[in-house]
Amino acid sequence: MPKNQPVKIYNTTKGIIVENEAKFYQISDFSWDSFINQPDLFSFLSEQIKTAPIVAGLDESTLLAPIVSQEIWASGVTYLRSKTARMEESKDAGGGDFYDRVYDADRPEIFFKATAARTVGHLENIRIRKDSKWNVPEPELTLFVNNQNQIAGYTIGNDVSSRDIEGENPLYLPQAKSYDKSAAIGPCIAVFKEPISKEVFISVEILRGEKTVFSGGTKLSQMKRELPELVEFLTRECSFPQGCFLMTGTGTVPPDDFTMISGDIVKISIESIGTLINTVE
Ligand code: DO4
Ligand code: MG
Fold first, then answer.
1. pLDDT of 192-242, one tens digit each?
2. Which residue in 11, 13, 149, 179 is a FRET match for 35, CA 20 to 30 A apart?
3. Do 196 and 167 fall within a single domain?
């Protein structure tokens, strides 16, 4: 296997499919929850594909979000760009100082984002709230943390957010962040032998019809915190018998005069994991 290339796990309507070096394997006899929580997942996958039947390929229309019993949590204000954007949006509410302080504090911001039922996968629709006028995607490297509190894999996340609600009062954060179809993850869980490189680029493009109305990106190395540090805080007083997902914060925020509208297509790519595409309902 070439150095630190991931093995990818897909949740599909036809069961679990594993991709390795452009070959696809059908996995049977495992539930999703038990499969992704196997200890030393990379070695386990390498063993599984020695005997699993090869299938023709991956039909994208069969993809499901890579989540069954897991919760999605999220960390915030982990990049400078997120801190400055939130200080600006909440300055009239006196919230600016909170964001400044959490950026420098030992304890990171961590919040509950979504249940599996509120989450969509690749090519499914995300939603913006009807009572909000300013909505953005947040492209985020998302960790799969297994039931032993280890980072076992990575996926792509969209922490869809209502900036006017969050900016009006920091106590409205749960309403700005957590509602039906406010979270997208996928298309796979990518499992690496070594931790993911900090040089990976996380990019986002928003299409309105044929036109790109916003594009941007950041390197993971721009994040102020370490990934294990975020996991350590999340798992201090919460256990996750089936593992969980942790969105790690956004480093890309569109300009303040930008809002998503119905019909927009959001494409988030992370090198070596893939691209997550969702349309705004
Ligand atoms: O505190 C607001 C949310 C921060 C967030 O979601 C992010 O930085 O990604
Ligand atoms: Mg976020």
1. 999 999 999 999 999 999 999 999 999 999 999 999 999 999 999 999 999
2. 179
3. yes
Q: Find the domain containing 45 and state its range.
A: 7-62
* Number of structural domains the chain divides into: 2
DSSP H helical ranges for 37-78: 41-51
CA distance 98 to 90: 10
Tell me the three state secondary structure of residue 281: coil
Q: Give the largest Cα separation in the chain, rounded.
A: 61
Tell me: do 225 and 156 sit in the same domain: yes
Q: How many CA atoms lie within 13 A of 256 on its CB side?
A: 10
Q: Does residue 28 sit within a domain? A: yes
Cα–Cα distance for residue pair 208/263, rounded to 1 Å: 7
Atom 4, ligand 1: residue with shortest CA distance: 76
Cα–Cα distance, 10 to 224 (Å, whole number):
30
Q: Indicate whether 116 and 48 sit together in one domain.
A: no
> What is the predicted pLDDT for the residue at 1?
43
Decide if pLDDT at 2 tops 70.
Answer: no
| Contact residues of ligand 1, CB 6 A cut-off | 74, 76-78, 82, 86, 109, 138, 159, 166, 173, 249-250
- CB-CB neighbours of 29 under 10 Å: 8
Residues 220 and 86 in one domain: yes
E strand segments, 160-239: 161-162, 183-191, 201-208, 211-219
212 lies in a domain? yes
Q: For position 102, which CATH number holds?
A: 3.90.850.10
**Ligand 1, atom 1, residue with closest C-alpha:** 76
- The answer as to whether 2 is a domain residue is no
